[in-house]
Design brief:
The complex is a heterotrimer. Chain A has helices spanning 11-49, 55-59, 72-103, 108-121, 125-139, 146-170, 174-182, 187-216, 219-222, 252-261, 268-298; strands at residues 62-63, 68-69. Chain A is mostly helical. Chain A has a two-stranded antiparallel sheet with strand order 1-2. The longest helix of chain A has 39 residues, at 11-49. Chain A is globular and about 90 Å long. Chain B is mostly helical. Chain B has 2 domains: 2-42; 61-293, MetI-like (MetI-like fold), CATH 1.10.3720. Helices cover 75% and strands 1% of the residues of chain B. Chain B contains 13 helices and 2 strands. Chain B has helices at 2-42, 44-47, 52-57, 74-105, 108-123, 126-145, 153-178, 181-189, 194-205, 207-223, 226-231, 249-256, 265-293; strands spanning 61-62, 70-71. A two-stranded antiparallel ribbon of chain B has the order 1-2. In chain B, helix 6 crosses helix 7. The longest helix of chain B has 41 residues, at 2-42. Chain B is globular and about 75 Å long. The termini of chain B are far apart. Chain C is of the alpha/beta class. Helix content of chain C is 35%, strand content 26%. A 6-stranded mixed β-sheet of chain C has the order 6-7-8-3-9-10, sandwiched between helices. A 4-stranded antiparallel β-sheet of chain C has the order 2-1-4-5, with helices on one face. In chain C, a hairpin with a 2-residue loop joins strand 1 (6-17) and strand 2. The relative contact order of chain C is 0.18. The chains are: A mainly alpha, B mainly alpha, C alpha/beta. Chains A and B meet through helix 1, helix 3, helix 4, helix 5 and helix 6 of A and helix 1, helix 4, helix 5, helix 6 and helix 7 of B.
Chain lengths: 302, 301, 254
């Protein structure tokens, strides 16, 4: 006599499905725990900063020992230092990435370079700061300056630029390179005319992300150039480039650190507003990189 | 004309190639320089009043004592480890669970949204997180637990956990996605539920990648400076409860370097702390790399 | 240079990849303005042999070459300008490769690399090569179309046009027809038969019958060694020099 087969769930199956539902719920909760802090943090910062969030906050300089006024000087300081450091790190990083992906033969040297990049990426930011103080501020004689801080930030952002460059280059199919070699193009000609143009989007995304990271970092600039107060012009073209390359400078991240934990008398809303400005700066740069990536994907050429 | 342009191209090529190779090798130069420099700046301290035994075993950290400066790093090391372990205890389960959810359960559009959220979370600067710990979480902790101060081990660990979750989720999700779909299909065809697929097939299969994700989170936690500086307090002590303030290695350097005399003993001891930090981070990163790629650097399946 | 005399010579050439042998003691003479076909089972070194002619074997990691390859008596591996050498040889792969450029730029790529800037000259090259590759009529109104968006058969003809764009004296085709339809294959084979009077053509045959259709001389390569080389008639006859040849051309193995 044959037993009747049915597709109704038995006890084992029901238990399995219950565990599955539980796991899904737990996972969903975990994922929600990701969104919640982001929304809560940004929301709370905005709410607390509201009274101080005015246009003059951005364009005016700090006044009355930083307890009032705007954030122009630190803002422009951050931008200047970050731009300068990327001007050093981006070319070196992209060329190093080209070396790793296009020129280096498989062997101990290539492996050593890859290991070095990986280790460089793992160095804590405060150790970068230590190196910056000892090597740039003191030994090289730059003093606490835009130059010293930029060099320190450049070393910090270099390894990630190298890695994102190699990944972007590796995404270009080998067949394209071979087609170019076969018609007589040299390695460099192939890289310049075929590989690099098609990897540019990925490379740019990597660089932009490091811009946002450098803008938010404090430890590397803590002792290499960031100061709490420096008098700068607030009118005219000089207001955009107020810091000479050998001068100390104000920076948004450092400013937040000091007014929130080191000095008293700064209003709550101003502290929160500083945090908001920094977060907005960083997130808008990230948004640019996300937009570039999106545009890349939709205009795929192969 | 064609010939001149061609000749110029050919002549400049070896120069371009040399510049490219130099840039590639610069990574090695920089790592060696940083390692050597930091260690070299710190070593003279041992000749000048830093006793190795005291350094490793004492909890007394009084670098500015006019009577006899003491440089025991045990409390600082414990502080770093305690914050890191507690943060990982919070972040790892949440991170792995979230990465399983994102990779296996949720719809593609939700996945895109969540990935953007993670990326934005990861972008929030550490000083902002420190500020949140100090100004927001601190008062909350004081109110909830009746503690005297709100900046302590618990505060730092929560903030650090929030900072570490994104990297654990994104590397973990990559590791899960790397497991071939054929594994999933085979298990589903046998009647497994999604959870059983994840538990019995994917987690073991992605084990190396997930381990690497956790280790990267650990590395980040050990190396974090500003957030713990602002959120864990300033007491140099071995914590006995979650509500005790502590001081990490990183925070110590950040708090004290500005007040030292260049070349003095205190200054050099801070470089010794930096060397310790560097070694710890290097060890963690090398382990993560070794797990994912094996010793020879070949890609694990 | 008279047709039929020797153009390319392999003299005791051996190639290995990190110790694994790909070609073992290969010696062969390839005649000018003839179609020379290479047949053999998979992994017998046919692609390696072609890569030695235009020296792109250098780009293969851990490849080591011993022996000499000469074109008109000049040692290929001693040439100072590798780019100029490669432009004397046209190379076509098994898989069609349309570069992510416009059709026009695909064909103009090689002349531009060689320094040609004159627009009229480039227009001329593009049209001539696309006509020779039997692609002109299909793309003449859409020259700005992205090369990667063409069909497989069109991309293969585009690759051939690109291979002709730098006016090579030798054209190498490596199983060019495996990814394209029989009709297009026939058209291209007709082109090759026509080009023979102006170029030396080396074809790694996609199937044995292709060698029979096209070639003047055939070489049978097996596991990196030359089994036999001779006139097509002889290779496909009842009495080739080696019984292995007899077995292979009749499809008894490989």
């Amino acid at each position: 006599m044959t037993a009747r087969v049915s597709f109704v769930a038995g006890a084992v199956e029901r238990r399995k499905q219950a565990i599955d539902r539980l796991a899904r719920a737990f996972g969903f909760a975990a994922a929600t725990l990701l969104i919640a802090p982001l929304v809560a943090v940004i929301g709370y910062l905005l709410v607390q900063a509201w009274p101080a969030l005015t246009w003059s906050l951005v364009v005016e300089n700090p006044a009355r020992f930083m307890t009032a006024g705007g954030l122009w000087a630190p803002l422009v300081g951050t931008i200047d230092v970050v731009v300068f450091s990327l001007a050093i790190a981006a070319p070196v990083g992209v060329l190093a990435g080209i070396y790793l992906n296009e020129y280096a033969r498989d062997g101990w040297l290539k492996r050593l370079v890859q290991l070095a990049v990986m280790n460089l990426a793992g160095i804590p930011s405060i150790v970068h700061g230590l190196f910056g103080v000892g090597a740039f501020v003191l030994a090289a004689g730059f003093g606490r300056s835009v130059l010293a801080a930029s060099c320190t930030l450049a070393i910090m952002t270099l390894p990630v630029i190298i890695t994102s460059t190699t990944e972007a280059l590796a995404s270009v199919p080998m067949a394209f390179r071979e087609a170019c070699w076969n018609v007589g193009a040299s390695r460099w000609q192939t890289v310049r005319t075929m590989v690099l143009p098609n990897a540019m989007g990925g490379i740019l995304t990597g660089i932009i992300l490091q811009v946002s990271r450098a803008a938010g970092e404090t430890a590397p600039i803590l002792f290499t150039g960031a100061v709490f107060y420096v008098a700068i012009p607030d009118r005219g073209l000089a207001a955009f480039f107020p810091y000479g390359i050998r001068d100390p400078f104000m920076a948004l991240s450092y400013h937040l650190f000091v007014i929130s934990s080191q000095v008293t008398g700064v209003s709550d809303s101003l502290q929160y507003a500083t945090a908001v400005l920094l977060v907005l700066l960083v997130l808008s740069v990230n948004a640019v990189s996300i937009a570039v990536r999106y545009r890349l994907r939709s205009r795929a050429r192969w | 004309m064609k010939r001149i342009a061609h000749a110029l191209d050919a002549a400049s090529e070896p120069i371009v190639e040399a510049v490219i190779r130099l840039c590639g090798w610069s990574a090695i130069g920089l790592v060696v320089a940083i390692l050597a420099f930091v260690v070299a700046q710190g070593l003279p301290a041992f000749a000048n009043g830093l006793d190795l035994r005291e350094f490793l075993t004492s909890v007394n950290w009084r670098p500015d004592s006019p009577v006899k400066p003491q440089f025991g790093m045990l409390a600082l090391l414990t502080g770093s480890l305690a914050v890191m372990l507690l943060a990982m205890a919070i972040a790892v389960p949440i991170g792995i669970a979230a990465s399983i959810y994102i990779s296996e359960y949720c719809a593609p559009s939700t996945r895109e949204l969540l990935k953007i959220v993670i990326e934005l979370l990861a972008a929030i600067p550490s000083v902002v997180w420190g500020f949140i710990g100090y100004a927001v979480l601190g008062p909350i902790i004081m109110r909830v637990t009746d503690a005297a101060i709100g900046i302590n081990l618990l505060n730092g660990a929560i903030i650090l956990a929030l900072m570490s979750v994104p990297i654990i989720v994104s590397v973990g999700e990559d590791a899960l996605r790397a497991v071939p779909d054929s594994y999933r299909e085979a298990a589903l065809a046998l009647g497994a539920s999604r959870w059983q697929v994840a538990w019995a097939v994917l987690l073991p299969g992605a084990r190396n990648g997930l381990l690497a994700a956790v280790l990267l989170g650990v590395g980040r936690a050990i190396g974090e400076t500003m957030a713990v500086l602002m959120a864990t307090g300033h007491a140099v002590q071995i914590p006995h409860s979650l509500l005790d303030p502590v001081r990490t290695l990183t925070a110590t350097i950040a708090a004290e370097l500005g007040e030292t005399v260049a070349g003095g003993t205190h200054y050099r001891v801070l470089f010794v702390l930096g060397s310790v930090l560097m070694l710890m981070s290097l060890a963690v990163n090398l382990t993560a790399e070794w797990i994912v790629h094996g010793i020879r650097g070949r890609d694990a399946a | 240079m008279p047709a039929g005399d020797t153009h390319v010579v392999f003299d005791h050439v051996s190639v290995d990849y990190g110790g694994k042998p790909a070609l073992v003691d290969v010696s062969v003479a390839i005649p000018r303005h003839r179609i020379f076909a290479i047949i053999g089972p998979a992994r017998s070194g046919k692609t390696t042999l072609l890569k030695c002619i235009n020296r792109t074997i250098e780009f293969v990691p851990r490849a080591r070459v011993r022996g000499t390859v000469t074109i008109d008596g000049e040692d290929v591996f001693a040439a100072r300008d590798a780019g100029a050498l490669r432009r004397r040889i046209g190379m076509v792969f098994p898989l069609p490769v349309g570069l992510p450029l416009s059709v026009y730029d695909n064909v103009a790529y090689a002349p531009r690399i060689a320094g040609v800037r004159n627009r009229a000259e480039l227009d001329d090259v593009v049209e001539r090569c696309l006509r020779q590759a039997v692609l002109w009529d299909e793309v003449k109104d859409r020259l700005d179309l992205l090369g990667t968006r063409l069909s497989g058969g069109q991309q293969q003809r585009l690759t051939i046009a690109r291979a002709l764009s730098h006016q090579p004296e030798i054209l190498c085709l490596n199983r060019f027809s495996i990814a394209i339809d029989p009709l297009t294959t026939m058209k291209i084979e007709d082109v090759l038969l026509d080009l023979k009077s102006r170029l030396t053509i080396v074809v790694v045959a996609s199937q044995v019958q292709q060698a029979r259709r096209l070639a003047d001389r055939v070489m049978f390569l097996n596991a990196g060694r030359v089994v036999e080389a001779g006139d097509t008639e002889a290779m496909f006859s009842e009495h080739p020099q080696s019984p292995l040849t007899y077995e292979y051309v009749r499809g008894h193995f490989g």
